[in-house]
Amino acid sequence: QVQLVESGGGLVQAGDSLRLSCAASGRTFGIYAMGWFRQAPGKERDFVGGVNWSGGYTDYADSVKGRFTISRDNTKNTLYLQMNSLRPEDTAVYYCAAYRSAFGTTIDRRKYEYWGQGTQVTVSS
Length: 125
Hints:
This protein is an all-beta fold. It contains no helices and eleven strands. The chain has strands at residues 4-7, 10-13, 18-24, 32-39, 45-51, 58-60, 68-73, 78-83, 92-100, 114-115, 119-124. Strands 2, 4, 5, 6, 9, 10 and 11 form a seven-stranded mixed sheet that branches. It has a four-stranded antiparallel sheet with strand order 1-3-8-7, with no helix packed on it.
């Protein structure tokens, strides 16, 4: 069982940066692949980025490549999402998620077993 708690969201202007954190409970954080998803009002929850258990492999949605960076610190049981050059279209509730995996990561949200409660990111123009 893993419990996930996101933090770091807020209201920023276009072009600003934010760093989201996701704190995980449990001693087995290192065996889980992790991902960030986001959901805007009236839209589906979309994949933003993912990282494998070690942090050595990452994947991103095309819309955030070159602007967002996902990382993890297994010694602190924490996942991060550094978001730079934010745009109004990045406005959404951001969720972290986890699933047990020894290989890579996935964009398929159905694979993820555990979810945080979400943190709101609002980017004004």
